[in-house]
Design goal:
2 copies of one chain form a homodimer. With about 375 residues, chain A is an alpha+beta fold. Chain A has 3 domains: about 1-115, DNA Polymerase III, subunit A, domain 2 (DNA Polymerase III, Chain A, domain 2), CATH 3.10.150.10; about 125-250, DNA Polymerase III, subunit A, domain 2 (DNA Polymerase III, Chain A, domain 2), CATH 3.10.150; about 255-365, DNA Polymerase III, subunit A, domain 2 (DNA Polymerase III, Chain A, domain 2). Chain A contains 6 helices and 27 strands. In chain A, strands 6-2-3-4-18-17-16-10-14 form a 9-stranded antiparallel beta sheet. In chain A, a hairpin with a 3-residue loop joins strand 7 and strand 8. The first copy, chain A, is elongated and about 75 Å long. Strand 22 (about 305-310) of chain A pairs antiparallel with strand 9 of chain B, so a sheet runs across the interface.
Amino acid sequence: MDLYIERDELIRGLGRVQGIVERRPTTQALSHVLLQARDGGLTMTATDTALTLVAQYPARVEEPGELSVDAAHFFQIARSLAEPTVHLQTQPGNRMSVRCGSAEFTIHGMAAEEFPPLATRDDRSSLTVSGGDLRRLIEETLFSVSPDDNRYGLNGAHLEELTTDKGQSRIRVVTTDGSRLSVSEAPFSGQFGMGRRMLLPRKALGEIKKLVEADGEAWRVSFGENSSTFSTPSLTLMVRLIDGEFPNYRQVLPTSPRRTVRVPREAFSAALKRVAIVASDRNHSVRFAFEPDQLVLTADNVDLGHARETVPAELQGEPLFTGFNVRYFQDLLAATRSDQLQLELIDVLEPCIVRLPERDDALFVVMPMRLD
Amino acid sequence: MDLYIERDELIRGLGRVQGIVERRPTTQALSHVLLQARDGGLTMTATDTALTLVAQYPARVEEPGELSVDAAHFFQIARSLAEPTVHLQTQPGNRMSVRCGSAEFTIHGMAAEEFPPLATRDDRSSLTVSGGDLRRLIEETLFSVSPDDNRYGLNGAHLEELTTDKGQSRIRVVTTDGSRLSVSEAPFSGQFGMGRRMLLPRKALGEIKKLVEADGEAWRVSFGENSSTFSTPSLTLMVRLIDGEFPNYRQVLPTSPRRTVRVPREAFSAALKRVAIVASDRNHSVRFAFEPDQLVLTADNVDLGHARETVPAELQGEPLFTGFNVRYFQDLLAATRSDQLQLELIDVLEPCIVRLPERDDALFVVMPMRLD
């Protein structure tokens, strides 16, 4: 292998694999990136066995070849380089030289044959979704995936297709950790094609979000028996899906709220941040008093004291006094952008539905807390 | 206590005490800040017993009074506030209310009487040094104070006065951790006045550096029996000095180098950063080959591989091949600003002197490493 590549392309490629490779791998290859120089380009492959990224980068290839090297170490070297072009060349003994300006590194690598073989793909049909929509689908749902991998059915995102009243085909992503739930939808073209219901794992969601570079990119998403593939013309991410029965979430979506409240995003967010300082120690509990023209937030902490905030709010319906985990609203605000939130409430211990005004393609549910 | 204070002044004051108070205090008061409202201002006092900061801030005092509260918690609250003016008011039961716009906090405090009494000062004479010089004296020496508090005589900065050939009075600060040494000097007016030789502790150096806000500030430095006081018109930092015999550092300052080398700062710094990637695992050792018109840096690592860098350099004298801890040069570069460094070398296992061209008030010594 002997090639010249732009330093910025090298950094971009190595940056993308950092989230895939494992920090404490069970076998060395899982911390490595496989480099393959072929006609007109360098292919970088990384895998943790459940998630595999293969991406091509433009390079002037003097001699084809392949080698795998430690991804984190090579990334650190690439980022330290100062000149625009980098010369990569294999050396005897599975080594690779990296030359750039006055700098020269020799990296100990591993023969390409020792890199795990790629899973064979059995994709059937595929759908196409825009980069902007794909990123939004993930941003609006990733935060409510259960962080506990042992929570069967909750440790990934549920996907389904639906058709709107106006006949638009949409992909719907739903996540829940048992205390809150997020639903986000986006239009797609092509065939949904997911066979039996499986979940897209949390790590894959995070990596896909990072891989989206432009709103206008066309992303092809296809499904096999127990895998899914996300691709653009220059990269392919293969994802092993998680087996698991997602709960029947429709039953927690109440249809007739008794109260609706409009709150301005900025003031609500700033107020939550302040009461969270005091609430932060004991289960993040904050009291929400919905009054006719304001929302009063209060929190208490045995050690720290008391906090009280008021947010202007338009309430339709009877006043209500209830409690929520302040973090759930903070996460929701961080994942969305609208200027206002619409809260729909039924009663003290009933779930709160949050909608984004002017948007019919996202919906959130936050379960209340029992106040002491 | 009842007063109105600008939020930015409150944040500035509380920010300054964060480095003084203890995170895991043996007694509650050592994590507290004492607030005292008096004519025309708010005084904030914090101490870890070895270091005490007393500073005044403008405030509209409606009613004098005092109270101590947790410094980290109050700082977190202050930074979350959105409006420009903050209203502080003591409440029954050693509480304090904090009101700002729509936000209202109540903080549990402690009676001012429970705050430790300030040490009595026994300053004799004092000297005056500019803020810019004081900051530089610390920046150029702090990095080579021993991080080990048990290294008798090395865990603080040595101070002395001297008179230059041109009759200028200077304060000299010297630090060493046994493997490197830093000397920095600055002009002063007044009396040096330090009685017996004692050391200024590392934590005090760091806090003084943070307290300097402008080059033009006049800082008054005075010494008592075993304490020192650094002050401006609005703040006073009292420091308990460390007992300890600083080593006779003059014997490691060689006077007749056999080789001098000029290296450009930027290229040297970038090259060190790159070889450090490979050197970082095993005692940071890098080989320095001083050649007639270049410095060649190389490092090896059993796991990671090899790195080689060349830096343009003008050598006066015979070529030399030796080794250094790369971190020592990186720290030195981070603490200084000159465009070039002058390295003065005697022989393989002799110390390297580093001077900043055009500057006669700073000097650094780096001990070499024995190469395997």
